[in-house]
């Protein structure tokens, strides 16, 4: 972790708001999923944001997680070295993030390496893992392991095909968003330029 002093003023307020988004219940669900997905031989961390960060920080757990979502031999991260060097650990986190995007998680749902490494935004890490779980559940390719209620399925496109005849018929209809002229008449209206006659 970086050696930074405490923040003050607006920076402190922003950091407090970010920290309030962290969900301890979601942490427990994510730990359960990661252990179920990667295998029971994985060590469970103690509850708490700092312990969750330390568990994921070297990148090994994350790399094993993304590899477990692929068939054997098709894993995106071929080599997961056990190392204590900071830049190698950050490199593993970056590999996980690239593999996550390639798997189908949208870019806006993916955290930055420093969010995890420095503990700046652990809620963003949770959002990324939730998005990854949802994509894995949606793919339903047999590689997702865990409770099906932990993640929601992402919506998928429902593309429709219309024939030329149907498209031509649609051009003749006036949609309700254009308004309706039912019940409208011009009775009682006077034209512009004509003065009203008083009786």
From TrEMBL:
Matching SUPFAM superfamilies: Calponin-homology domain, CH-domain (SSF47576)
Family stated for the protein in its record: Belongs to the calponin family.
The Calponin-homology (CH) domain, residue ranges: 24-136
Entry-linked SMART domains: CH
Gene Ontology biological process: actin filament organization
UniProt xrefs under InterPro entries: Calponin-like, Calponin_repeat, CH_dom, CH_dom_sf, SM22_calponin
Name of the protein: Transgelin
Keyword tags: Phosphoprotein
GO (cellular component) term, any one: actin cytoskeleton
PANTHER family: CALPONIN, TRANSGELIN-3
GO MF, one annotated term: actin filament binding
Top-level taxon: Eukaryota
């Amino acid at each position: 972790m970086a050696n930074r002093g405490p923040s003050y003023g607006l920076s402190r307020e922003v950091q407090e708001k970010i920290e309030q988004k962290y969900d301890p219940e979601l942490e427990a669900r994510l730990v359960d999923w990661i252990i179920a997905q990667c295998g029971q031989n994985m060590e469970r961390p103690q509850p708490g944001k700092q312990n969750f960060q330390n568990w994921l920080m070297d990148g090994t757990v994350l790399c094993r997680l993304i590899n477990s979502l692929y068939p054997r031999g098709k894993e995106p991260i071929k080599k997961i070295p056990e190392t204590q060097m900071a830049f190698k650990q950050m490199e593993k986190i970056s590999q996980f993030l690239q593999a996550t995007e390639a798997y189908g998680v949208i870019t806006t749902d993916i955290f930055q390496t420093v969010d995890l490494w420095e503990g700046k935004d652990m809620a963003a890490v949770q959002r990324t893992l939730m998005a990854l779980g949802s994509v894995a559940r949606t793919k339903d390719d047999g590689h997702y392991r865990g409770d099906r209620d932990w993640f929601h399925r992402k919506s998928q496109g429902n593309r429709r095909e219309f024939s030329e005849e149907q498209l031509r018929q649609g051009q003749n209809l006036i949609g309700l968003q254009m308004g309706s002229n039912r019940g409208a008449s011009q009775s009682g209206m006077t034209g512009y330029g004509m003065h009203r006659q008083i009786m």
